[in-house]
Records
---
Amino acid sequence: MATDVLDSVASIPQIRQTQLLINGEWRDALSGKTFATVNPATEEVIANVAEGDAADIDLAVKAARAAFESGPWSKMDARDRGRLIYRLADLIEENIEELAALESLDNGKPIRDSRAADLPLVIDCLRYYAGWSDKIEGTTIPIRGNHFCYTRREPLGVAGQIIPWNFPLLMVAWKWAPALAAGCTIVMKPAEQTPLSCLRMAELAMEAGFPPGVINVIPGYGPTAGAALVKHPDVDKIAFTGEDATAKIIMADAAATLKRLTFELGGKSPNVVFADCDLDAAVAGAEFGLFFNQGQCCCAGSRLFVEESVHEEFVAKIVAKAAARKLGDPLNPETTQGPQVDQAQMEKILSYIQKGNEAGAQCVTGGTRFGDKGYFVEPTVFDHVTDEMPIATDEIFGPVLSILPFKNVEEVISRANNTHFGLAAAVWTSDVKKAHLMADRIKAGTVWVNCYDVFDAAAPFGGFKRSGIGRELGAAGLASYTELKTVTMNL
Ligand code: NAD
């Protein structure tokens, strides 16, 4: 991306779309209700958005079912499905500045991150899966007797997709791209905190030419619109990203109709720094791994294990990094840390900081709200954290780093694995043997070695243990939107 784009202050984007998308038409909620979406940097209302509920979900599911069974989508050549996804990626690229600004306005993330991370990853994800559309193959299987046996991968049907607020557009791309490539139709419920970029992307999808009913978007609240989608008998699968507490409700609600479920949930990821590593690289990785996106990352490296012999030096360096972060207006390209997404998140984070202090951890920088307007929290580092403290066990989802010193490899493996979560982990070392040992022994869906938060649409992502069920991205993500059919012929 050109530096002049990265350096320019983003102008406040026009809010083009606040309605529901059902069967290719933009409409108000049947109830006529709306809800406010708020700018977390100023606490001002940005827009009032149509608030869908069970009745709107029902219409959207009917549209998605019709498009799946009998519309042009069901007969479309796989190459043409791919072309539509490529076209959507192109339109997003053409409107990248507007979408990045919208993302930063609604979510509070710094514009430099929306431009350099979120939007490019959205475009890559769409293009990656566009290429898969006409490459979904089965196998032939040598079975007993005079039979010809083969498998086909067929689209699963109507996919209900429920996403969180921390990467609003990227979560849309991770959900839509494999579903569309597989030939499914979609009813999406974006997070109530951040509906705007999803609605704008849906407008671009209509411009790209997706037939009516293939993509439906119903903003609204979890217990109403979300639950209605989960319980709807004509939805084949729920793909959910969010908290494990919500996933338990969804699993119970989906039981009556035995829906397919994929879950991308939370984490308390260990980031392990060995004394033999490139310490400056590890410090930079630790800063990025925790403070990126205001700490609102499912895979945030929030438990930072540092080998005792470099502990003091490491703490001094990470404190300097944290204190140098520039908090402020997310639309200013100088800003490196924006506000938390809403007041509830800010208060939750501040309550954990208090718990850290009460438990006897040492707050070495930050520790308070920043300013009195907007939901900003200072980058906070706690040292001498012990494993049982709430700041070491619970997902805080904010800019709070816990440093836990350790003595040796076996000790750190057992402490790193001592959690219900298993989403991600990182290891910093120059010893390749140690790196492989850690990659083998750490129970997590992703292990980064000498890097952090490296994402690629081709690399599967998801959780061990209570961090999720199934995988997104890569071939595994595509497979989760298909049914496997076995055909056996008597020859
Ligand atoms: P959340 O669970 O509160 O909400 C997520 C979505 O679920 C929202 O759209 C919400 O409206 C909906 N929802 C809430 N109650 C529902 C119900 N009863 N039925 C159906 N839908 C319902 O999560 P959040 O606070 O928005 O997001 C933060 C969480 O997401 C964190 O735990 C984070 O780790 C996780 N996350 C995970 C990944 C991953 O890939 N593993 C990625 C991003 C975020």
---
Amino acid sequence: MGAKRQRIGVMGGTFDPIHHGHLVAASEVAAKFDLDEVVFVPTGQPWQKSGTNVSDSEHRYLMTVIATASNPRFTVSRVDVDREGPTYTIDTLRDLHRLRPNSELFFITGADAMAQIMSWKDVDELWSLAHFVGVTRPGHELNSMGRKDVSLLEVPAMAISSTDCRARVKNALPVWYLVPDGVVQYIAKHRLYRSASDSEKGNPEGA
Ligand code: ATP
Ligand code: MG
């Protein structure tokens, strides 16, 4: 009782792999909204995105842990990874709300994801669970779609996507400096994002 409510950012994503666009967005929102913590929440399995398979959730979870480990305000939650079936943001927010009853949640999304959220059917319940913060992302237009309960924040432009990182690894192009060093090494160690024939041939340091 009487304790200050914690202000907690929630950064949901597939994180396949996590990259510096995610980390900069979280860091900027944390600074601007005076957050005590940002919880990164990798989505569960199975989740088909654009017809392609997503990496095993344990790989995505571990890369997220590696990428956030050095920041004392960043943490990673397994609520979506441990829940059966596809991830819906409403479930993520309900679970975090239950686990952190004394906190105020700030759900962080890039401009592309924000547009999708607005089209969901359970959108009204989302507003009761969290504030929404939309951040700019190169190539996507950011707007609050007329909602006054959505905050918009311009963050340094990071023209990085996980899709591009995966394509780079597949084509033997570097992902250094697009993703944290530990994530580059994790991708190489576990031979993620290679075509099946590459994995068999073996090319341990080729990230
Ligand atoms: P993919 O290409 O596989 O969709 P992604 O780069 O979009 O990957 P996600 O895991 O889908 O990454 O995104 C998680 C969240 O981070 C989303 O809200 C997304 O809009 C946001 N985000 C991703 N990349 C950036 C970026 N470069 N700048 C700002 N926000 C970003
Ligand atoms: Mg995406």
